[in-house]
Amino acid sequence: MAGSATGAGEASRQGWHDCREAWARTIEGLAEADPNIVVVVNDSVGSSKLGGFQKKFPDRVINVGIAEQTLVGVGAGLANGGKIPFVSGASCFLTARALEQVKADVAYAKANVKLVGQSSGIAYGELGPTHHSIEDFAWLRPLDNLTVITPADPWETAEAVKWAAGYEGPVYLRLSRMPVPNLDIPNRVFRPGHAELVREGTDVAILACGTLVHLAVQAANLLAKEDISARVVNFSSLAPFDRDAVRAAASLGAIVTAEEANIRGGLGGAVAEFTAENMPVPVQRVGFPGFLPTGSIEDLFEAFGLTVTGIAAAARKSLARRAR
Predict the structure, then answer these.
(1) Average pLDDT over residues 99-103
(2) What distance lies between CA 66 and its chain's CA centroid?
(3) CB-based contact 60:31 (threshold 8 Å)
(4) How confident is the model at residue 25 (pLDDT cuts 50, 70, 90)?
């Protein structure tokens, strides 16, 4: 991700990592300990960072070719046979082309399938709306039985993969290819269904997920210079959803949501649903409004306010609405 999109220059991005690398290391380690773990791919070994896995476990990689409906169906069949399949492919195709199979064969059937959506959000940049995956939250969040996780950093990615391998039931892991830093949070524990407090604050709450969490932290730092105290919460779990954390955020009287996704149906939608029904407060949603024009990741983040300054501006706007 480029400097203007993140609010950080090249020097400050040292130590940032592609979350897919954490996924690859973790799944290889898990497979060494559990022979039932297999991966199913749609001609996506390279983009899923599974080259090392394939070398170590060539008989535990099932490549169905570019056939996403078959991809998910094979995963469900393997789960029915006692395997623990991690079904990995570009999230735009995994969730759109195979949505019926995800709904019926995985979620409705409560199959023990781990769907791994790679290169989510707008990670494919200039390839445009056909390759952007910004609607997946809206498609998957309503499905019963399906846990939806979007890790914020490499540490959380590894923990989410470990948790998914041991969990009996369907899971969707939304992974980005954009490098991000590990969040500086002591004594972290990964708990699906529970939001993670990143930074305390008393004036406005910034609820973020995935690649936007570290930007939310930087936005809070910027706001602090203006004597605005911003709470930052990592909502890596979209389903189950931490309603108590939203209630606590609403008690501040102003909320911002930030996600690399369509603001309709994702984190912003979930927060708006809850606050409208339970605790009406101003909610400013930072994300994408729909199909995007062709452009680089940097340009699109900048154009739609998915930046440090954009999130800070949304916080000020939410606070202004609270004051009316």
Answers:
(1) 98
(2) 24
(3) yes
(4) very high
Cα gap 75→55, rounded to integer Å: 21
- The whole-number average pLDDT for the span 100-115 is 98
* Residue ranges of domains in the chain: 17-174, 196-323
Distance CA 91, CA 173 (A): 9
Read off the pLDDT band of 181 (50, 70, 90).
very high
CATH of 196-323, one of 3.40.50.720, 3.40.50.920, 3.10.100.10, 2.60.120.10: 3.40.50.920
Q: Which 3 state secondary structure label does DSSP give 273?
A: helix
Which strands, in side-by-side order, build the sheet including 196-199?
196-199, 230-234, 204-208, 255-262, 283-288
Residue 150 per-residue DSSP state: -
Q: Within a 13 Å sphere around the CA of 68, how many CA atoms are in the beta-carbon half?
A: 18
**pLDDT value at residue 85:** 98
Q: Give the mean pLDDT of 189-212.
A: 97
Measured in degrees and rounded to the nearest 5, phi and psi for residue 197 equal -75, 120
Q: What is the pLDDT of residue 13?
A: 72
Residue 79: how many CB atoms within 10 A of its CB? 25
CA distances for 24 relative to 57, 94, 255, angstroms = 13, 18, 35
The length of the chain in residues reads: 324
Q: How would you class 63 by CB atoms within 10 Å of its CB: exposed for 0-12, middle for 13-18, buried for 19 or more?
A: middle
**What homologous superfamily is domain 17-174 in, according to CATH?**
Thiamin diphosphate (ThDP)-binding fold, Pyr/PP domains (3.40.50.970)
CA distance 120 to 61: 22
Q: What number of other Cβ atoms are within 10 A of residue 96's Cβ? A: 16
